[in-house]
Fold this protein.
Amino acid sequence: MKYFKPFIILMLAAFSFTSCQKIEPIAVIPEPSECIQKKGHFSIDEQTILCFGNIGEEGRDIMKTIRESYPKKFKGLQPNLGDEESAGKNSILFAINEKPDETLGDEGYTLTVTPRKVVAKANTVAGLFYAYQTLVQMSYASQIAGNGPYSVPCAKIKDHPRFAYRGAHLDVSRHFFDVDYVKKYLDMMASYKLNKFHWHLTDDHGWRIQIDKYPALTSKGAWRPERSKWDTLHPMSPDEPATYGGFFTKDQVREIVEYAAARNIDVIPEIEIPGHCSAILYAYPQYACDNYPYVVAVGPYWPPKAIMCAGNDEVLRFYKDVLDEVAELFPYPYIHIGGDEAFNDNWQVCPKCQQRIADKGLKDEMALQQWLMNEIEQHLKSIGKKAIIWDDIVSEDMVNKSTIMCWQGPQAAIIAANHGNDLILCPTSHCYFNFYQNDPDKEPLAMTGLITLEKAYTFDPMPEGLSEKAQKHILGGQCNLWTEFINTPKQADYMIYPRICALAECVWTDPAHKDWKKFQNKVEMHTAYRKK
């Protein structure tokens, strides 16, 4: 993507913005529900007072995040703090509505900018946090131009999200990303009003979370030999040192969960069941159907052979023990339990699995997987959690009532929605940001497939053809960053941005308010700000 000089950016953005015309560009991503621009601007300077009104104890962490980020967002300006009573001239007030505005919901807000002051109001602290993100973005034009004090165009904005679930996924199994990068990823999510972090913690290529009852998961399953390239790898040999990898301690997980909460982000951990488990079987081979010498995978292979033995009661005990420890770390409703690409060839010849099918009166191996996932789902329910499962589990006669994450296309989504399951959409066609984003001949090596920024921008989480009743089961959507060919923070940033901006607008903004050309110009401004 070309980067324009600042004055060209300002001209393009001002010309393209139709809902907030004239004066200065307002380049907010995602596009607000309503925006009326007024004449004039508000200047943020050394005397500006940052005020908070009617903020309960539950909002302290998010308000602290605003105070601490203020000097970073406004290049060194230290906020003068006040309460609602001191919110006079040259002030920015964040206040909870005394009487809830039902049109705003839980995450909406109003933002009024005049030459004298800025007032943000919402029903919740989450809404105020998003008002702050909008205010920061409104100042981008001034900051790109190097202006100080920072100029914010006068406007009246009323904004609320289209979907409650607005997510981004990060795979830390195939390549490990540390606490600092996870925090950076969360900051990017927060900037664009995304609120669900899907943390892919386990796979064939490494187990990344401390489990006290099963220490070999991290002492053995978190490590593999180092390789220079992903696509031309030979398997790990028994005497080869395993030096690449890592895992998150429980204290680090708590730190990340706390960091995310202060940015209105729920963290949803994923523990893969029953496939993608080479790292588990390397650490605990007794949970396999066979005596195959499983190792932590070092690169691609297909089809994946590793699968946990569904006929072994100890496997059920293992998963329940693991999920009990995981549940203690994540204070949110959802835990993702995988379910994708579970090739059941081993089950077809495993006496224990075949006996389980017979004992439970199951139709086949697919029904055995549904039974296993349902057992886990019921256990999660017993400890106050809900399960998310990939759409591989979906069939016309499925028994699972879990939330379905749809990656394969609209057909499974339609079946699941009509079945009464809640859904999250992240189809490979639009949301897999490990795919190329431009001409593969000119791009770094990536996963086969092409999702340009424009293609990502056409994503609609609402499948066509759903009844009004079924539409209520669509919770929202997310982008996925699988890290087969992504082994550094720099490469991860390159692959996720600016496509994450497109995803954010697709899940927040009503389709009637989206505009591709306007969005392009906004991205140009945001990119210039990020480079500044």
